[in-house]
Amino acid sequence: MAVDPKLRIGFALHSMGVAGAEVLVAEILARGGSVLEPTILCLDEIGELGHRLRAEGVEVIELGRRPGLDLRLPGALARVARDYELELIHAHQYTPFFYAALAGMRPGSRFKLILTEHGRHYPDLVSRRRRWVNRWLLDRRADAVTGCSDFSIDGLARVDGFSGDRIELIPNGVDLARYESSGDRAELRAELGLPTDRILIACVARFHPVKDHATLLRAFAAVAAEREDVDLLLVGAGPLRGDLERLTSELRIGSRVTFLGIRDDVARLMRAADIFCMTSLSEAASLTILEAMAAGLPVVVTDVGGNPELVRDGVEGRLAPRGNDRAIAMALLDLCENPERAHTMGAAARGRVEESFTLDATVGSYLDLYRRVCGR
User: Fold this and answer.
1) Fold agreement between 7-173+359-373 and 178-356
2) What's the whole-model pTM score?
3) What is the mean pLDDT of residues 240-262?
4) Is the pLDDT of residue 341 over 80?
């Protein structure tokens, strides 16, 4: 029986740094390697994950996008697609899709094209010109369009002007095995250098305005004033770290907040924590929230974007209005003071991921989509 050749697919992204869409691409490559012959197309820079994949033998190309509208880029993309005989380009986010769509209009270009929308900007505004171009030109260039949440799909249709009835939902997923509780928590905390006798609230997010760590710190200050046995762990890096460190000093919680920087052991940190909290102004389908849920943590997150699609208020955790540090503090205190409730919510969170947000299901859906679009 004849075996189909591997699918020659290009993955177009801004870069291959360590972020949600990029990690997803790495997971698709890791789990779909037997059927894929991948080429990664980085518009701006290779990034940490890109260098790692290149060292493993994956073809990773840096295209060197120029500032503003780079009219040289579609030609460069078209040449790469031709040289590597790509059957399909899977563009993650709008800008890579925009340039790939223009590349597909050039004479001799034959590749299929998929757009996947992950997050949305906040505030979510686009020009009338962009919406018109999307509706009457670029939408027709996509052989398939997907979103990782209903929130993302709504943004593509309502804000960007893509045909809403053709956008498919492929939810994000996480590798459950990485977040299995194993061993004694006190022993794990000791290995990580964390206190064994404290309630630990964890937040994993880059220090960027959209993540609104300032609201989290103000909420935690109220928690710290009521409970002397609670600490906050902040994992991440970004331009606002200095501002946030100054805010912890102003709030007099410096001894209760630990900045852990970028870590490669987030799964272990999640398993060592008691509660997860993230106070973003906007989210789509946060992998970090799903990771916390997979680790069996009750979560306190803002009621924005796709968060309510992941977390049901009062079931897997609590939803609070964006920017409302009082409501967030009350939700955190409730979990600190009711450990049985926190445990029940954490177990429900793990069960929800097992039921609806597994990495195997996510990758399988994308591989099925590739086969369908390529006529395999």
Assistant:
1) yes
2) 0.91
3) 96
4) yes
Cβ-based neighbour number of residue 57 at 10 Å: 7
What six digits make up the tokens of 61?
């190309």
Which of 166, 135, 148, 54 lies closest to 92, judged by CA? 148
Q: Which tens digit of pLDDT belongs to each residue from 132-177?
A: 999 998 999 999 999 999 999 999 999 999 998 899 999 999 999 9
pLDDT at 121 over 90: no
How far is the C-alpha of 28 from the C-alpha of 50, rounded, in Å?
Answer: 14
DSSP letter string, 210-257: GG-HHHHHHHHHHHHHH-TTEEEEEE---TTHHHHHHHHHHTT-GGGE
Instruction: Tell which CATH architecture fits domain 178-356.
Output: 3-Layer(aba) Sandwich (3.40)
Instruction: With both helix axes pointing from N to C terminus, report the angle between 339-356 and 287-294 in degrees, rounded to the nearest 10.
Output: 120
CB of 159 within 8 A of CB of 153?
Answer: no
Q: Where are the domains of the chain?
A: 7-173+359-373, 178-356
Q: With respect to CATH, is domain 7-173+359-373 assigned 3.40.50.2000?
A: yes
